[in-house]
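Sequence in, structure out.
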Amino acid sequence: MSDPVSTMDGGLYAARQKIYPRDINGRFQRLRTLAAWVLLGIYYLGPWLRFGGRQAVLFDLPARKFHIFGLTLWPQDFYFLTWLLVIAALSLFFFTALAGRLFCGYACPQTVWTETFLWMERLVEGNRSQQMKLAKAPWTADKILRKSAKQGLWLAFSLWTGFTFVGYFTPITELARLIAHLDTGPWETFWVLFYGGATYVNAGFMREQVCKYMCPYARFQSAMFDRDTLIITYEEVRGEPRGARAKGVDHKARGLGDCVDCTLCVQVCPTGIDIREGLQYECIACAACIDACDHVMDRVGYPRGLIRYDTQHGLEGRPKRVLRPRTLIYATLLLGLLTGFLYTITHRNFVAVDVLRDRNALYRERPDGAIENVYNVKILNKDGAAHEFRVVGSGLPGLVLDYAGPTVWVGPGEVQAVPVRIRVPRGALAGGADIEVGIEAADRPELKASGKARFIAPSG
């Protein structure tokens, strides 16, 4: 066994060799391109869409309101975010068990932005062989011009990415005006540069290293795979032994498999692996190797599918099982969570109430003998229109509730605190009991909410 220290001038680790993925055309590459256009279109156009006279998607942190088209979420709706994260995690488990790393190959932001940067690199420096030749060439005016143009495109695109990201939190038209006048605040400036810089470094330089060394998904994906998971496979029985041959030669008679050892499957791989060595954690299931191999098989007149999507059981000639306990459990849980989420968010209450008892005094005895407690009732109106609210109470015999005015006006998206005095006749209770304080809109009785509070009285 060779000494790892001697691999590179006394160093423990080999230097990274830059990967130049070869461009390929095929059905899976067209799907990836379509997915990239759709996802990038949603991201870059999202903050420019208008709905109801405002930005359609805006996470307004200072106002503590999240606008998503006609839906407005408040801090009290934070559990919806947790719910969405659980759905996203379960979706990842489901699709991984079903079809491997489809998310990585077609929808992961790292993959989508890396492909975009690779496209710009090919636009300026040419195809794979031209890029490799340029990298080895001495620094000339042409090389400096091409490298500078590429970096300029990357920087401009990265800054636009950071600008778009901040545009989801600061109205993007206002942000554009501030940038044009060089008048952005420290936080806007920081996040534009930070997110733009992260895009520039991750997609422009680190690329496959993020997938190999930084992404935790590659490390635990094996726990979600089984022998019925759809993965990218190389049919070793059919392909080996591999070797070059002239077109039209009977390779079977020469003892060769269908693999012509052209290495195109390695050249197109964005992570630089050889799929013929078996499934590896670095594989992101982009299917570029399938397109490349099918193209070669067509040229030499062999059947397609030497490299294909298949399962371990499929390679062994056994039946493929899509519906199995693991996928059925994931699908059932996912369907239940999605149904519950959609029902809850479409039937959520647009008003809320928070009842806080005044702790400065346990209770007060009035001249008429009644026992009085004071509360601070906070009314939250999450509706898009203002409402007049009545405050009511129940839970004790003879309970009387007083506050300023017959109704309380609360504007859209506002919180109004109301001092409320509640009294009961002496002797109605001893010690303490729970009461219920509620609110209801005078113009829309269906808008109502209630909260519990503790009423304190003398124990004797």
